[in-house]
Amino acid sequence: MKFYKKLISAIICLCASTSIMADDASYIMRITLTDGSVVNYVVNKHPKVSLSEKTVKVQTDEITAEYDVKSVVNYTFATNATGIDDVQDESSLPGITFKYLDKETIIVSGLQTDDKITIHSLSGSKQAFDVSRDDNTAHISLSNLPCGTYIISVNNSKSIKVFKR
């Protein structure tokens, strides 16, 4: 229980300190999970983080993700007000990164060659979508999908909720 109190205190301090960032900045939220994996989100607006006794919920206009509170080791926020990222060695950034490029394109980075990407509607039906893949990156086009809410999943383990308007 002491761990959770420290986690909640750290999150409150972190949220308070990040609320003074510029509105037009890109935000990066990195969540480290107990299994050692790291999930990165790059969004245009600062995410809202909600904590309950059982879940950590991350939400913006673009994404919604929910994690069991016991599976989250920590999470951090960073901002990049210029829109230019530092050059980094991809191997130093483990985990899968979802980036909302525009209203109809999602970039998924950190993929392995045999990773499988699926999209489901909220009703659970599997959706057909256009995807182009490189070595460890996929560009997913939502242009052929009607407006709505969808779950993009990698290997049925890492997923995000996206909204197409």
Set out the fold topology:
Elements: H1 2-18, E1 26-33, E2 38-43, E3 48-51, E4 55-59, E5 63-68, E6 72-80, E7 96-102, E8 105-109, E9 117-121, E10 130-133, E11 137-141, E12 148-154, E13 158-164
Parallel strand pairs: 2-7
Antiparallel strand pairs: 1-2, 1-6, 3-4, 4-5, 5-13, 7-8, 8-11, 9-12, 10-11, 12-13
Task: Note down, in words, how this protein is organized.
The chain has 165 residues and is mainly beta. The chain folds into two domains: 1-84, SH3 type barrels (Roll); 96-165, Sandwich (Immunoglobulin-like). The protein contains one helix and 13 strands; from the N terminus they run H-E-E-E-E-E-E-E-E-E-E-E-E-E. The relative contact order is 0.15. Mean pLDDT is 75; it is low at 15-24 and 81-93.
Summarize the structure.
With 165 residues, the chain is mostly beta strands. The chain has 2 domains: 1-84, SH3 type barrels, CATH 2.30.30; 96-165, Sandwich (Immunoglobulin-like). It has one helix at 2-18; strands at residues 26-33, 38-43, 48-51, 55-59, 63-68, 72-80, 96-102, 105-109, 117-121, 130-133, 137-141, 148-154, 158-164.
Keywords:
165 residues, mainly beta, SH3 type barrels, Immunoglobulin-like, 2 domains, 7-stranded mixed beta sheet, 1 helix, 13 strands, globular
